[in-house]
Amino acid sequence: MAGKPKLHYFNGRGRMESIRWLLASAGVEFEEKFIETPEDLDKLKNDGSLMFQQVPMVEIDGMKMVQTRAILNYIATKYNLYGKDIKERALIDMYTEGMADLNEMILVLPLCPPDQKEAKIAQIKEKVTDRYLPVFEKVLKSHGQDYLVGNRLSRADIHLVELLYYVEELDPSLMANFPLLKALKTRISNLPPVKKFLQPGSQRKPPISEEDLEKESLSMTGKPKLHYFNGQGRMESIR
Ligand SMILES: N[C@@H](CCC(=O)N[C@@H](CS)C(=O)NCC(=O)O)C(=O)O
């Protein structure tokens, strides 16, 4: 029997979190090896484990898989979460690519310079309520089923629910006009493996803090990353 998949990434959400969500929702146990220092990353790079010298990397079924989407595609296919035919798969791909676009905006938000952050958040909120959530609310309304595609659980539901948790963290009122999405979130959250993943102490990661960001940047570059205005102020002594 193959061992558990082993996930190599920082101890934070980043690009690995959707992989954690998908595995956990499929009821698959996994191990994690966190990158904590520049040396940890160098080791992976130098031993040839990283095809493009980047993480996420997942050891699974004798492979060292990189590229987030490739990893997600493999897991979704393996655990039958990718539709029953190519048309369902095409729908799932369209939905999940839209979700990935929104997820990316939220993912890079902590990297936004402080003086631009408010405007960026406003822009994301507008995209959430005017572009992305209406699409998925409309899909659910159009067929009246419990899942986005094919009347059964697929990766599209799992990625969407992950995203809805982030949207709620940003501002819970953003969900106000989307009753079917709220119901989907509750329904999927109550599936036993998802419920388990949502419990405190699971491998789900919290939002990134300034401190984590600093650590992650340190483990990527070996250099501390300073977030401040281009002026002396309180940062100057730290410089
Ligand atoms: N397209 C890649 C992008 C991976 C990526 O940008 N990884 C970052 C960490 S989140 C990284 O390893 N950066 C180091 C580098 O590019 O040298 C994916 O989706 O996996």
Automatic annotation (TrEMBL):
SUPFAM superfamilies: GST C-terminal domain-like, Thioredoxin-like. It catalyses: RX + glutathione = an S-substituted glutathione + a halide anion + H(+). Residues 3-83 form the GST N-terminal domain. GO terms for biological process: glutathione metabolic process; xenobiotic metabolic process. GO terms for molecular function: glutathione transferase activity. GO terms for cellular component: cytosol; extracellular exosome. Residues 199-239 are annotated as: Disordered. Keywords: Transferase. InterPro entries: Glutathione-S-Trfase_C-like, Glutathione-S-Trfase_C_sf, Glutathione_S-Trfase, Glutathione_S-Trfase_N, GST_alpha, GST_C, GST_superfamily, Thioredoxin-like_sf. Its EC number is 2.5.1.18. It is an enzyme of class 2 (transferase). Residues 85-208 form the GST C-terminal domain. Transmembrane segments: none annotated. Belongs to the GST superfamily. Alpha family. This is Glutathione S-transferase. It comes from Lynx canadensis. The lineage of its organism: Eukaryota, Metazoa, Chordata, Craniata, Vertebrata. The gene is LOC115514058.
